Amino acid sequence: ASGDKPLSLATRRKYVAVVRKMLDSAVRDGLIAKNPAAGVDLGRERAVPENSRAIDRHEVPTRAELDAIIAAVTNPTIRGLLRFMALTGLRVGEACELRVKDLRGIEWGAAGAGATFRVARSVSESTDDNGARVVGLPKSGRTRTVPLGNEAYGLLKGRLHGDGAVVDLSDPNALVFPNRDGAQFRGSNINDPVLVKACEAAKTRRVSCHTMRHYFATDALHRGIP
Questions:
Q1: What is the DSSP-derived secondary structure letter of residue 180?
Q2: Predicted TM-score (pTM) above 0.85
Q3: Alpha carbons 161 and 154: distance in angstroms, whole number
Q4: 11 phi/psi in degrees, rounded to 5
Q5: Taking the CA atoms of the chain, what radius of gyration do you get in angstroms?
Q6: Using one digit for the tens of pLDDT, what is the confidence trace for 139-167?
Q7: Which of 36-40, 45-49, 120-124 holds the top average pLDDT?
Q8: CA within 20 to 30 Å of 42's CA: 9, 83, 97, 126, which one?
Q9: Which of 55, 11, 3, 72 shows the shortest CA–CA distance to 214?
């Protein structure tokens, strides 16, 4: 716990999942006879005040809560952006800076099994001396390749190749999720007012753009993905 505040059920599950995997390895290696973390009672989720406006950074929404929040977002591009972050674990600056050239090599067939894309840049909230948004390497300091699950693949395929596709594929520098001016969204502007209003409409706890990354990681752990 942090101070007097108990950890959320989602956070407890995340921590126990990691410990359980470590102890499973110890059992396989013959270091211990059985996994003491198996069947641990994590208790129940605490009640969430209706229309809570406080962001609890230890909380991760359920899939039903996430669906309700995203459905309450009125801007369709932001809806896609948030869903894509929740499905891939991208940081908001990385998703806002994703461009057509980063999707080269993807075969847009019937399914997306094995498809990957490149995360090469991230746009920050700050601006340079000319007022332009600062674009640099991702937070890790290096590019990385990210796998596309079927749902994320379908989302991208719809934006790029579906009926009413809105991305100019002839321009390698075209943003995948541009704002109405053709520029990158600001994460701060999505957090407030977009997500503030969406969470109020969905009657859920407050979340931020970065919650999508936590959701991705927690969901992966629940499905047994390291």
A1: T
A2: no
A3: 10
A4: -70, -40
A5: 20
A6: 989 999 999 989 999 999 999 987 777 88
A7: 120-124
A8: 83
A9: 11
